[in-house]
Amino acid sequence: MRRARWFGVLFAVVILLVGGLASVVRGQPESRVPRFITDDEGRALILHGLNTASSAKSTPDAMPDLSEDDVEREYRDMGTNFVRFLIQWRAVEPRPGEYDEDYLDKVAERVSWYEKRGYHVMLDMHQDLYGPGVTAKGDVGNGAPRWATETDGLPVSAQEQWELYYLEPGVVRAFDNFWGAASDATLMRHYAKAWGEVADRFADADAVLGYDLMNEPWGGSVQGAAFESGPLAELYRLSIDEIRDVDADSWIFLEPQAVGVNWGLPSALPAVDDPRRGENRIAFAPHLYPLPMDLGDDYATVKGEVDAAMTTWSDNVLRTAQRLDAPVVLGEFGLDATRPGALDYVESVADLADATGMGWSYWSNDPGGWGPYDEDGKASPLVKTLDRAYPRAVAGTPTAIDSDADSLTLTFRGDPDVKAPTEIYLPRGFGDGGELDCDGCQSDWDADRRVLSVATVADDEQHTITVTAK
Ligand code: 9MR
Q: Coiled-coil intervals in this record (predicted)?
């Protein structure tokens, strides 16, 4: 662990230097996202939620361990309005060209649980280490169907840390064959068509906000800019075309290469076209896993390095978002929340998201140390940390959000076309409706949903709303 620690520190320094140099070369970083995802009323959405769930990776029917009561409990305890819901290619297309409608029915049933509670759902085509077919036992990867897994007989040896499987020859080869090493894009086309099937099913589902095209992409033997601007961008184009044939309105969430970018290195992902009529609906959905903590250090001991890596990560993410002209949702961040300093880290990330205008989904809601509940369903202190006051829908463009345990300040530029009120979720600690301070606004408190609706004048002026606990 000592060596790992020094490696982590060294890496943080390298990332800082690269980030610093990049600033010199490319100018001052952006401090806010370039735009927001909006709802049907034109309000900017701020998304707070959890990944649901890692358990879906390995169950035979690819369903997460989740009941409607769990969704209800999450809403009551943490006031989330968003879920990154894991789906699996192996379940969508169990045999080449055959799509499993029963599977999509089950996903739709779960989506309806969220819909009843006003959630926005992002469907995430999850994979880790390509798919279960990278080993005979099927105990390593998840995502791709076996029929689409071609390791060419190369070995995949046991690893202690799961990410290290990415370097195993059989896993690298499976990815190379997927990306079309022999300039044959058959598997990518299957994947894109599978997305078309999913989009066809969910195009009219109000709760489904959009599609996260691939979890944590890995280029196999092609890495970095060559990967992101080559095969990855090509997969995105193919998938977007299939989706747009059947669904003009859902958002498309793009992830960068995970390795390196999750730590804070810049992404070279190019802007990709959205063939829909009107403004593009392409969003950026990177992950954040600072390396020192990935290697096992606690936030309490490496806070300085991690905070610096977070700043670099944020600068780089905002630059990419600018290039893509995309809203940002931090699709994953998370850690063993029982470790020293872990809750401070979660709070720092949520503060960073508020400061920059990003949405977030915590990894993950699975029971255990990383999750909000233990195996017996007992709430951990993480529940309280994730239960933050936040504006869910803003009648204009948010310019600053500052949230803590007993106050929330939102500043936004109004929009004359947006007539619906700003909606603010308040945790129980705020009391009923909190103490509201704003200029000439009208408010309404929904005690059941714990949502304060605040109607301001629809103009293009700057508005500030402050709510304090009472
Ligand atoms: O937390 C997950 C761990 O239990 C699994 O062994 C591993 C491999 O499937 O995946 C972990 O979840 C990861 C997610 O799939 C992708 N982003 C990083 C997550 C945490 O490591």
A: none
| Cβ–Cβ under 8 Å, residues 289 and 262 | yes
What is the predicted pLDDT for the residue at 1? 44
Residue 315, both tokens: 């600068």
Contact 319, 328 (CB under 8 A): no
**Band (6; pLDDT cuts 50, 70, 90):** low
Shared fold status for 5-388 and 390-470: no
> What is the distance in A from the centroid of ligand 1 to the CA of 334?
10
Which atom of ligand 1 lies closest to the CA of 332?
17
- With a Cβ cut-off of 6 Å, ligand 1 is lined by 54, 57, 128, 142, 162, 216, 287, 332, 363
pLDDT > 90 in the chain, percent: 92
105 Cβ contact list (under 8 Å, min separation 6): none
Residue 43 class from Cβ within 10 Å (0-12 exposed, 13-18 middle, 19+ buried)? buried
pLDDT digit string (tens) for 97-123?
Answer: 999 999 999 999 999 999 999 999 999
Q: Which residues lie closer than 8 Å to 358 by C-beta, 6 or more apart?
A: 33, 317, 328, 329, 330, 352
Q: How far is CA 468 from CA 34, 198, 226, 425, in A?
A: 29, 43, 50, 12
CA of 322 to the centre of ligand 1 (A): 29
Whether the CB-CB separation of 77 and 372 falls below 8 Å is answered with yes
Q: What are the boundaries of each domain within the chain?
A: 5-388, 390-470
Please tell me the class of the 5-388 domain: alpha beta
Instruction: Note the pLDDT tens digit of each residue in 50-100.
Output: 999 999 999 999 999 999 999 999 999 999 999 999 999 999 999 999 999
Tell me the CA–centroid distance for residue 25 and ligand 1, in Å. Answer: 35
Nearest protein CA to atom 12 of ligand 1, as residue:
54
Of all protein residues, the one whose alpha carbon is nearest to atom 9 of ligand 1 is: 128
Average pLDDT of the chain to the nearest whole number = 95
Decide if pLDDT at 20 tops 80.
no
Strand order from edge to edge, sheet including 251-254: 282-284, 251-254, 208-212, 120-125, 82-87, 48-52, 359-362, 329-333
What CATH fold (topology level) applies to the domain 390-470? Answer: Immunoglobulin-like (2.60.40)
- Residue 341 phi/psi, 5° resolution? 85, -5
Rounded to the nearest angstrom, the distance between the alpha carbon of 296 and the centre of ligand 1 is 14
Distance 54 CA to ligand 1 centre (A): 7
**pLDDT given for residue 181 in this prediction:** 73
